[in-house]
């Protein structure tokens, strides 16, 4: 299997009974195409993670990309951060994702991307220490709700003073009419990106028990409870948002 090859996402193109979504080899092999066509603003969010990381990275600290998939946010940070002696830890529990990330890192080390270390582990077990930037780019939504608080608390404790956490999520909004509107606009976006109505509806079913979105209010109050002194949304398109929280 060619680990550097990415294909077009047709995983839900034929009618079937979708089972719960998992981050296996099939998903890893189409991931870049899938996320670019499924998350409005994904490219912008990655670029801005690089910009934020460049601003807040402290010399001699750790930068974490939790639920890194193929390392999009790690690469953005590696390209932009100029603080001395930072280590970027790209962590994911999917062996298929980490194998592909490692193949990519091996083939690109010659192009000057250095300082990214990959780890195949559950982020609930990861040690976060001496951190200046932590990224949860569309990962928290896959963590069981009752474990989100402990994870954010651990991140807060592992961050140095002046450090930041970036959290990007699919969200719900409290008003049902507005929520429906955002979902409709999002489905229009996916159709414009080349997904059929069948693909959109089968993927939605597959994610139903796996991706649990929350409101911005829930996110912000949890961040406050965990100790973050302030948090704000810096990007939103339809029902996708990214927040930054400050220690
Ligand atoms: C990006 N951040 O391209 N421990 C470790 N990894 C996990 C866990 C866990 N408990 N749960 C889920 N994951 C990336 C995109 S994708 C988002 C993140 C999406 C991993 C999972 O294996 C997958 O790779 C990632 O979180 C979510 O910027 O596909 O919508």
What does this structure look like?
The chain is α/β, with parallel strands linked by helices and 247 residues long. The protein is built from nine helices and seven strands; from the N terminus they run αααβαβαββαβαααββ. A seven-stranded mixed β-sheet has the order 3-2-1-4-5-7-6, with helices on both faces. α4 links the parallel β1 (62-66) and β2. The relative contact order is 0.16. The model has no long low-confidence stretch (mean pLDDT 91). The structure holds ligand GEK. Ligand GEK is lined by residues 23, 35, 67-69, 72-73, 92-94, 97, 122-124, 137-139, 142-143.
Nutshell version of this structure?
This protein has helices at residues 25-28, 31-38, 42-56, 72-80, 95-108, 145-158, 176-192, 197-207, 216-225; strands at 62-66, 87-92, 116-120, 131-137, 159-170, 230-237, 240-246. It is of the alpha/beta class and 247 residues long. β6 and β7 (240-246) form a beta hairpin.
């Amino acid at each position: 299997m060619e680990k550097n090859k990415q294909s077009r996402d047709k995983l839900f193109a034929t009618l079937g009974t979708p089972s719960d979504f998992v981050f296996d080899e099939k998903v890893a092999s189409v991931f870049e195409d899938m996320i670019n066509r499924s998350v409005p603003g994904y490219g912008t969010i990655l670029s801005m993670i690089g910009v934020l990381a460049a601003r807040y990275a402290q010399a001699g600290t750790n930068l974490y990309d939790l639920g890194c998939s193929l390392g999009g946010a790690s690469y953005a940070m590696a390209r932009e951060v100029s603080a001395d002696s930072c280590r970027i830890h790209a962590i994911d529990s999917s062996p298929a994702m980490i194998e592909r990330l490692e193949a990519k890192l091996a083939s690109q080390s010659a192009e000057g991307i250095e300082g990214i270390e990959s780890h195949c582990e559950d982020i609930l077990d990861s040690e976060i220490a001496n951190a200046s930037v932590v990224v949860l780019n569309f990962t928290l939504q896959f963590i069981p709700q009752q474990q989100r608080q402990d994870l954010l608390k651990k991140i807060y404790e592992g961050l140095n003073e002046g450090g930041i956490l970036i959290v990007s999520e699919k969200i719900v909004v409290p008003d049902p009419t507005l929520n429906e509107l955002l979902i409709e606009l999002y489905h229009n976006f996916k159709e414009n990106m080349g997904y059929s109505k069948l693909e959109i509806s089968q993927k939605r079913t597959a994610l139903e028990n796996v991706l649990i979105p929350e409101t911005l209010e829930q996110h912000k109050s949890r961040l406050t409870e965990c100790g973050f002194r302030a948090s704000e949304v810096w990007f939103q398109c339809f029902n996708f948002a990214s927040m930054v929280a400050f220690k």
